[in-house]
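User: What would this chain look like folded?
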Amino acid sequence: MLKNKTILFLSYWSLREPLNASAVFPYLRLLSERNDIERIIFVTMETTTRFLPQVDLDIAKVEHVALKPRLARPYLLSRAFLFIEGIIFLMGAVRKNNVSLIISKASIAGAMADVVHSFMGTPYSVESFEPHSDYMLDCGVWKKRSLRYVFAHYMESRQIRNARHIITVTHNHRDDLIRQGVNKDRLKVIPSITDLDTFIYDAGRRMAIRQRLGIPSDSKVGIYVGKFGGLYLDQEAFTIFAQAIERFPGMHILVLSPSLHEDIRRKAHIAGIPHDRMHVVTAMHVEVPDYLSASDFAFSTIKPAPIKRYQCPIKNGEYWACGLPILMTDMVSDEHLLMRSGIGGAVYDTDLSNVPESLDRIARILDDPDHKEQMRELARRYRSIDIARGVYEETL
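Assistant: Here's the prediction, encoded as structure tokens.
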């Protein structure tokens, strides 16, 4: 094992984007614990202009560098300039700091790492590798002949050929890549892991959050964490929320989202959700476990498509860790097979026709007095940081 290695960890998300806190920071902590790593240069692309909560990046050995776009508009030109400037910076950082490995988070960051690799030969790995281009195509955000799709799809194919390791988030994706001829030794799986020390049920916080929001202690609460639209259901999600309120009299809906609260409340009104049963909050990532503790079950409303078998929602592990069964779109991630059997939650068909029956299955889980520990055990088994630790032992 080589000592005193310098790792460059690249994220295409802004530092304060909630995805970094949940999908990157735990990995940075894991890397910082290793004796063979001396420095971690953490690079973020500061592309988000909307309000974001503050974050605490206090991780040993980690030095943060924020790259900001010089152009705000037009969108495509701004992103193109940032991509080029980012590559120039990365090449300089690799040379100056004798970087031994670039770890890129997801395929967009992986595209930049691949270009650096082409010029300098620096090895790189891609974590949370997913066919992002096909996700965006399937959900209608990109067109097949659009520049963004063609470029992203091409760069994803390059990463599959050139990366030292491709780390997918589902076994479904790894198995399909093996069938396509990719060497299985280059393929690893790390699902979207969950910090089980941070995400844990707290009865005291449950009571405090409910009192703050004016939710009765005996009311059921269904929570959704994240955005609407794009890869996720939009108005349809609120239709599901409304059906849940019908199934559980007196129920409240709690939404944690960086999206505009006015838009969320407008969509809730269209779905017929009473104003006093809808609670919308923008919370720091460290506060999310408190709101999950205040809830009884969770929604994971992802747009349906066959390719979503490759997706592994971060929020699902966080839900389970706090004891929440999940109502989720069918055919998503590896865990949809568990939920089809009534383990960990329930899935609904893509046309939403069986949502009432799925809610009945959620109700049966909630009737089990041991269900919270059962959900947490699923998080331990399928989303533990120990999975990532084992993969790092094999790949670093």
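DSSP finds 16 helices and 13 strands in the chain. If you want, I can go into more detail on any region.
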